Amino acid sequence: MARHLLARGHRDIGLVWGDDIRAGVRRQGLVAALAENGIPAVPTSLGPAPGMFQRGREGFADLLRSGARVSAVACSSDVLAQGVIAEAQDRGIRIPADLAVMGFGDFDFAAHTTPSLTTIAIEKATIGRLAAQALLARIRGEEVAQRIVDVGFRLVERGST
């Protein structure tokens, strides 16, 4: 997310983020990547998990109320990102001309919204298969060799950035 937004010239990047553990790890990585590029303080609106559309709207409104000037908003889920887009559009902010928005998860609606949502896709089916295999191994009394498996991710660039 950070590399994509930075490559598009954004330096004023805000976050609308859920406070669950996995999202927190992703947020730490994003903030670290921004800091490595000279962006030490990132305005952030944290909300309870799971991320919901209304929370995305509220999170973006919180960023604006705080006085943060942002040219891009990264979100911990596509649902939050869609809420950010809706709030921005209601305020007359054009996506992506005035504000770039990114999500996470490549949810089924992401390609079909206006504008379509730039997001990070993860291999959900692979994660489910590996989790089921690990669970079955544990049921059989076997040790699970790899407790953490990196299945990778990919950027899906669409109209919102």
Provide tags for this entry.
elongated; 6 strands; single chain; 161 residues
Brief summary:
The chain is built from five helices and six strands; from the N terminus they run αβαβαβαββαβ. The protein is of the alpha/beta class and 161 residues long. A six-stranded mixed beta sheet has the order 2-1-3-4-5-6, sandwiched between helices.
Q: If you had to describe this structure to a student in words, what would you say it looks like?
A:
The protein is α/β, with parallel strands linked by helices and 161 residues long. The chain is built from five helices and six strands. It has helices at residues 2-7, 21-36, 53-65, 78-90, 124-139, and strands at residues 13-18, 44-47, 72-75, 100-104, 118-122, 153-156. A six-stranded mixed β-sheet has the order 2-1-3-4-5-6, sandwiched between helices. α4 links the parallel β3 and β4. α3 packs across α4. The radius of gyration is 17 Å and the shape is elongated.
